[in-house]
Design brief:
Order of helices and strands: HHHEEHHEEHH
Strand order of the largest sheet: 1-2
Number of strands: 4
Number of domains: 2
Shape: elongated
Helix content: 40-55%
């Protein structure tokens, strides 16, 4: 499958038209879904273009599936009131919300991390470590603070898992905004003892 030159913006159908005749999906919905998959999985343009070619082949004739996403992205973004948010890659919580407004279902796999049973907050953080990191990861890895000036002697643990540990620890601690930094530092110390 080879791709031709970029679609020209003038030749693009109306972004609000349907994907194909009698479709329940608009071109706008389709493109936003493809863009979300592209971004979620960090897919390169050529991979997306090959996927689009396959979709065009499967859809009925005279469909509006783009050959190349790039020009549609431009048109799509021009027609949208775009707002960006940092979200947790595991539970889709908006990380820009105040900490006390987070959802109550931080899932990791099929486990709700906020439901880990522990008699104390320290034991809760320890339990989180056991769920989020394998024994081998805990043995060889370590959590480093964002401003750590130390040269890492051990492998830094997965930043995504560390962020999840941070969110859940702060929620469980019910820390006030002025205590967040101290509580996270305490959680890192507890977590690193498990390493």
């Amino acid at each position: 499958m080879s791709s031709s030159s970029d679609d020209s913006v003038e030749d693009l159908p109306n972004i609000n038209s349907v994907l194909y005749e009698n479709s329940k999906t608009s071109l706008n919905e389709f493109i936003s879904s493809i863009m979300a998959i592209k971004n979620r999985h960090s897919l390169p343009d050529n991979a997306i273009n090959h996927i689009l070619q396959l979709i065009r082949f499967i859809l009925p004739n005279r469909n509006r599936c783009p050959k190349i996403l790039r020009s549609y992205e431009k048109k799509f973004l021009e027609n949208q009131d775009v707002t960006t948010h940092r979200v947790c890659s595991y539970c889709s919580t908006d990380l820009e919300q105040p900490i006390n407004e987070y959802k109550n279902d931080h899932k990791y796999g099929d486990k709700n991390l906020l439901n880990i049973q522990a008699t104390t907050w320290n034991k809760y953080v320890t339990g989180l470590m056991e769920v989020l990191f394998t024994f081998d990861e805990r043995l060889k890895g370590r959590i480093y603070g964002e401003n750590s000036k130390k040269e890492p002697k051990r492998i830094p643990l997965s930043p995504n898992h560390v962020e999840l540990l941070k969110q859940c620890s702060l929620i469980k601690a019910k820390a006030s905004p002025d205590q967040l930094e101290k509580v996270w530092k305490d959680a890192m110390n507890i977590a690193n003892r498990k390493c």
